[in-house]
Design goal:
about 180 residues, mainly alpha, 10 helices, elongated
């Protein structure tokens, strides 16, 4: 299996070098690394998973240099940083995505979540509110706002946002079960 990974890396790195504007050479290698990291996590090997995800981030950074106008690269980069609990780096990456695509709800919602985790409550609040300004049914934003209110011990606002979350969220979400 290790030999297959090495062959895939070699092939996809060659594709990236020969065709730097071709998205598939990058995304396929990122997918290989993410799948490999998932295997490491299943074996409870956090360090190996982190090293493999770091390789995926390096691929995305190379891709961003070659395809600098693609917000999706930075959204994916931010998502991997979030998986690694690297909240400040996730905020930075998702901020880059928002510079390229200010209306990206995925980037804004994920940056709000990363900011919430990083304790950057005002940035989280601003992003959640902006998401709701575009889509009042964006249930994860209500959950995030409820968490922020809970931190401030504003129980009334927390309950109001949890109720809005329950109103809009599908019943199968993990957060729904907690509330």
């Amino acid at each position: 299996l290790r030999g297959e990974l090495a062959r895939a890396e070699k092939l996809l790195l060659a594709v990236q070098e020969q065709f730097p504007r071709l998205e598939g050479g990058y995304s396929n290698l990122v997918n290989v690394y993410v799948a490999e990291a998932d295997k490491w996590l299943a074996q409870n090997s956090q360090d190996a998973a982190r090293q493999t995800l770091s390789k995926a981030l390096a691929v995305l950074e190379r891709q961003a240099k070659a395809q600098s106008d693609q917000a999706g690269i930075w959204i994916r980069h931010g998502g991997i940083c979030m998986t690694m609990a690297d909240w400040s780096r996730a905020i930075s990456s998702l901020g880059r995505a928002l510079e390229l695509e200010p209306d990206s709800q995925d980037a804004r919602l994920n940056r709000a979540l990363a900011a919430l985790q990083a304790g950057q409550d005002e940035l989280a609040r601003q992003d959640y509110c902006r998401v709701l300004g575009v889509n009042a049914a964006a249930f994860p934003a209500y959950y995030g706002l409820a968490e922020l209110a809970w931190r401030r011990k504003d129980w009334q606002q927390a309950v109001a946002n949890y109720e809005l979350y329950l109103k809009h969220a599908p019943r199968g979400t993990a957060e729904y079960a907690k509330v």
